[in-house]
Design brief:
- The complex is a heterodimer of chains A (about 190) and B (about 120).
- Chain A has helices spanning about 5-35, 45-80, 95-100, 105-115, 120-135, 145-175; strands spanning about 1-5, 180-185.
- With about 190 residues, chain A is mainly α.
- In chain A, helix 1 (about 5-35) packs antiparallel against helix 6, helix 4 (about 105-115) packs antiparallel against helix 6 and helix 5 runs antiparallel to helix 6 (about 145-175).
- The longest helix of chain A is centred in the first third of the chain and has 33 residues, at about 45-80.
- Chain A is elongated.
- Chain B is an all-alpha fold and about 120 residues long.
- The longest helix of chain B has 26 residues, at about 20-45.
- The radius of gyration of chain B is 19 Å and the shape is elongated.
- Classes of the chains: A mainly alpha (about 190), B mainly alpha (about 120).
- Chains A and B meet through helix 2, helix 4, helix 5 and helix 6 of A and helix 2, helix 4 and helix 5 of B.
Chain lengths: ~190, ~120
Amino acid sequence: MEITVRGLWTMIHGMGFGALYLMACSGALVELYRRYTSPLGPEIKIEDERFMRIYLTAMAVLAWLTVLTGAYVIYPWYRAVPPPGTANLAAFPQRLLMSNPSTSGWHSIGMEWKEHVAWLVPISITMATAVFSQYRRSLRVHPELRAAVLGFVWVSLLAAGIAGFFGAMLNKNAPVMGGSTITVVQGGQK
Amino acid sequence: MSAQTTANTPRAMLNPNGAGAAAVLAAGIGSLAVAVFAIVADKAAPIKSLMNFYKPTGPLSGVTTCAIVVWLVAWALLHWRWSRRNVEVGRITVAAFILLFLGLLLTFPPIADLM
């Protein structure tokens, strides 16, 4: 069982940071709704606030790690230009997708949207983390700020979902492969 | 339950909304900036070339770096102006959502191509 270095980075970016962010989003939304929507809601302890602050900070770190590894580690491999006359485009995913009309849309719409919309995620969640850290339980008496935090977290979930969906489909149609090979587990002889 | 751990302390209630409003509006501005820089770089070849901050990543590096700078500068300026007072946060939140949704829409290539 082997994986290439590029394949491993793609997995860390998508299934590690990105997927973890998507899962964390639902937890953040539930917790923000449950505890902060009503001034008469359940009592909020200092420990609950601290947990939520750490949780949102971890989400912001995940969001930044996702876009930074995407843009500066994987994207250069994705958009690499093949030398003239290259017949096998397997190591050049963007060119491979664009070489066929039935797959070119994955680049021209999928990647073009994904590479930009993904940046709305760290901006939104960093803002939500900063506002929560500043106001904490007093978000209950600032309904507009609470709505803004919830709205931006919802949109970050949507944007991360778009980026994640296209990331998965791009990797299915033209995986980022190459680099040295890492043997994960030695397979048995049959 | 100790007084330290009970909800809605008077100090928390008196926190002015300006700092939060500044962060919210700046996030809206930053979101739209991502789309605007992407469209400008796509339409104008000289700008596209200028946005090539890191060659392996191409213009995306400049587009996103510029948008992040706009976001952080907007946040710092708005925070400086509003952090110690209450502002009309309802209208500011609506404006921020409009900017955010415009950012979301304008990053969608078929819509960006109409610009």
